[in-house]
Amino acid sequence: MVSRLRFKGDPKGKVVKNKTKGKRNHKNVEQSALVPQVTLEDIETSWTTSSSLADSYGPVMLCLLDDKNNVRIINWKDESLCTLGDDFGVNEHDQFTPWKGLIHTVEPVSPSQVMICSSVLNSNGVTLKASKGKYLAKTGDKVSFNHAAIDTSCIFKVDFQDDGTVTLAIGDEHILATPEGELELRGSGEATRFVLRVQMRNTVRGKRMIEELSGKKDVSSIEEEAIVNDAVQSLMKYNVELNDELVKRLEDAHKRGRLNEQLIEERTKLKSDSRC
């Protein structure tokens, strides 16, 4: 279940309409001072920048900086065409995103800016679906929302970068946003770095904070979940396949006091499989 999305015209809320139309950029815009007290409403209604596959599901936005360093938002139109827009909301009191800049405060003002991201079993891939039900898919040398059902042309690999951005690829081709506002597929040497904005409540950290503030978990349980999540994140940079079996192995290893040994075994197994 996801919380209600807020858009332009809503009577109240901390999201303010972007009035810069590209005049501000991520280099000279600082986030507001952090508010020390976090409430359940903050977590339930805020968006944040994803830094891992574990946090990247449910409603998401894809943002980028164009060649003039202006923030642009990926939109879908007529259920198929992808375009770049500059109309978006801004959360001026973001307490959760570690990266600075306007692009890391963006929130949606229209359903056309929101996609549903879902992980694909037994892979490190995701699918992206527009609210009208069509999936983003490879169509020739472009990508568009034109598939009603999932097939291999709809599964994109997400590579997370250290600066809070991601690249999207299908096979050996990466998504590149052109100056004309289209999304094309190019060789591995060219790739647009996107910022993936997600609902805070759907992140591992957000869920943990909600449970803590709601009194649904004791402190030891929260700390244990945090340790296992950190272990999962440490494996993601080695392209280890994320699935329920992996999480269960790490949880069991942590309970037995041999989490570090299990992490070494997982990395060793990955190297062995890659040589086969």
TrEMBL record:
- The entry's keywords: Nucleus
Q: Which family does it belong to?
A: Belongs to the FRG1 family.
Q: Give Gene Ontology CC terms.
A: catalytic step 2 spliceosome; nucleolus
Which InterPro entries is this protein grouped with?
Actin-crosslinking, FRG1
Name its cellular compartments.
Answer: Nucleus, Nucleolus
Ranges where the record places region Disordered:
1-27
Name of the protein: Uncharacterized protein
Q: Which PANTHER family match?
A: FRG1 PROTEIN, FSHD REGION GENE 1
| Keyword Nucleus on entry | yes
Indicate where this protein is primarily found.
nucleus
Q: Which GO terms describe its molecular function?
A: actin filament binding
- Domain of life from the UniProt record: Eukaryota
Record field: compositional bias (Basic residues): 14-26
Q: What is the species listed in this Swiss-Prot or TrEMBL entry?
A: Cyberlindnera jadinii (strain ATCC 18201 / CBS 1600 / BCRC 20928 / JCM 3617 / NBRC 0987 / NRRL Y-1542)
